[in-house]
Design a protein that fits this description.
The chain is of the alpha/beta class. Helix content is 41%, strand content 14%. A 7-stranded mixed beta sheet has the order 2-8-7-6-5-3-4, with helices on both faces. It has a 3-stranded antiparallel beta sheet with strand order 9-10-12. Strand 5, helix 6 and strand 6 form a beta-alpha-beta unit. Helix 5 (128-134) runs parallel beside helix 6 and helix 9 (257-276) packs parallel to helix 13.
Length: 375
């Protein structure tokens, strides 16, 4: 099997699996219980919280655990707009957000908020001044992802947040950091972010655990009420096994971010070289985008048909965001990818564990597919 759909999910690393099993078999107590079994579970969870906090240059009290980035994004947007949106009713966002942000914004729009979505300019790039000019004294929230999950485009989050905070210090800034975390060097303070959404299963953890960084002093109104877990902001018994797996994955990857980035950059260069020799293949991702995500169009061959051809060769890629269930999200069009080019788009997403041999086998299979598959 050649797995090239790592932007959808990654294979859990050995350390994450071991940590999850230990939490299920040894530290299986409820972390809210007052006895020793509960304390042991709490301590295991505290370790994971500190590891994740350290990776962001933050304090453990800044990290709140969720079920994943979708919940983190919902909590950030709904919680902040409820806490600060009584008088300020405008939200500014990029037009290429993940569905968990975009659909939440649409719901807030239906509740009376004005949502201004900033698109790339004609050259396919975002400019900080476009976000800054959209913000004003009525703006409550600014949200933009770090790395686009469909194209690998790196958004100018630091530049935008810095400029906006300089002029409008009360605007709450949020970033969906899922495709950047543990791939690019991310620090909360340098980003200028008040809220940062993270996911465990995108970095070789286990599905079902995410986190939300909350800057000290920022208030969120809870979306889920009940117990007092996670400072009363996110009620419900924490999933200690999945959280421990998340922490173990971060602990493993943190020291090697630069090295892994260089490895994947080399893979992207090799992939680009191979694709340039295949007639009809065009690259949709920017050269300076994240090397972990590469979007291409395959000679007008419909994505779904090509995807299943590759699957028959035990090569797994995607036609876009896994959360869109195969339907076009509208994000490619924002980057000028339309018509047959959009209909034939494929996303290849790698990790440092991907090999050059796998990339070469993919390119060979793609070439054969273009020759043999009907549009």
């Amino acid at each position: 099997m050649i797995y090239l759909d790592n932007a959808a999910t990654t294979k859990p690393c050995e350390e994450a699996v071991k940590a999850a099993v230990e939490a299920m078999t040894v530290n299986f107590g409820n972390p809210s219980s007052l006895h020793r079994a509960g304390l042991d579970a709490q301590l295991a969870m505290d370790k994971a919280r500190k590891v994740i906090a350290d990776s962001l240059g933050a304090s453990p009290e800044n990290i709140l655990f969720t079920s994943g980035a979708t919940e983190s994004n919902n909590l950030a947007l709904r919680g902040a707009s409820a806490a600060y949106g009584k008088k300020r009713r405008k939200i500014v966002a990029s037009a290429v957000e993940h569905a968990s942000v975009d659909e939440t914004l649409s719901d807030l729009e239906s509740k009376g908020f004005e949502v201004v979505r900033i698109s790339p300019r004609g050259d396919g790039r975002f400019y900080p001044e476009d976000f800054l000019s959209a913000c004003d004294e009525d703006t409550v929230l600014l949200t933009m992802m770090c790395v686009n999950n469909e194209t690998g485009y790196i958004l100018p989050v630091k530049e935008v947040f810095t400029a906006v905070k300089r002029r409008f210090k009360d605007i709450i800034t949020h970033t969906d950091c899922v495709q950047a975390y543990m791939k690019l060097p991310i620090k909360a303070s340098s980003l200028g972010a008040d809220l940062i959404s993270l996911s465990g299963h995108k970095i070789h953890g286990v599905k079902g655990a995410g986190a939300l960084y909350i800057k000290k002093g920022v208030r969120l109104i809870p979306v889920v009420t009940g117990g007092k877990q996670e400072k009363g902001i996110r009620s419900g018994t924490e999933s200690v096994p999945l959280i421990c797996a998340f922490g173990a994955a971060v602990e493993k990857l943190s020291p090697t971010i630069k090295q892994r980035y260089e490895t994947v950059s080399g893979l992207k260069s090799r992939l680009s070289e191979l694709l340039s020799a295949i007639e009809g293949v065009s690259l949709n991702s920017p050269e300076d985008g994240s090397p972990y995500v590469v979007n291409i169009s395959a000679a007008g061959k419909r994505s779904e048909i090509m995807l299943h051809y590759l699957e028959s060769r035990e090569i797994y890629v995607s036609s876009g965001s896994a959360c869109s269930k195969g339907q076009q999200s509208g994000v490619p069009a924002q980057f000028g990818i339309t018509g047959k080019r959009a209909d034939s788009a494929l996303r290849i997403s790698m990790t440092a564990e991907t090999t050059e041999a796998e990339i070469e086998q993919f390119a060979d299979a793609l070439r054969e597919g273009i020759a043999n598959v009907r549009g």
